Amino acid sequence: SVSFTLRDLRVAYGAVEVIRGIHADFADSGLVGLVGPNGAGKSTLLGAMAGLREYAGECLFDGKQVRTWGRRELASQVSWV
After folding, report:
1. What is the C-alpha to C-alpha distance for residues 50 and 59, in angstroms, rounded to an integer?
2. Of the candidates 50, 32, 51, 34, which has an alpha carbon nearest to the alpha carbon of residue 42?
3. What is the pTM of this model?
4. How many Å separate Cα 30 from the centre of its chain?
5. Three-state SS for 61?
6. Contact 70/61 with Cβ under 8 angstroms?
7. What pLDDT digit, counting tens, does each position of 7-58 carry?
8. Is the Cβ–Cβ distance between 5 and 25 less than 8 Å?
């Protein structure tokens, strides 16, 4: 089963779109590595997935938009380092 689904995910800082058009599915088990150079958007992407950044598009955890989860409820299900 899939835990995270990203569809046309976009994140902007002001007028500057720093993440654009991300599509991905992440299974509920296993290990995922997110690598790239400084400034590539790794932390910004994870911030959106953790509900810490505003985003456009779909960022779903277990079929529900991350922005609609309560902070404590999501934190009890999701963690990142």
Report:
1. 10
2. 34
3. 0.86
4. 17
5. strand
6. no
7. 999 999 999 999 999 999 988 877 888 999 999 999 999 999 999 999 999 9
8. yes
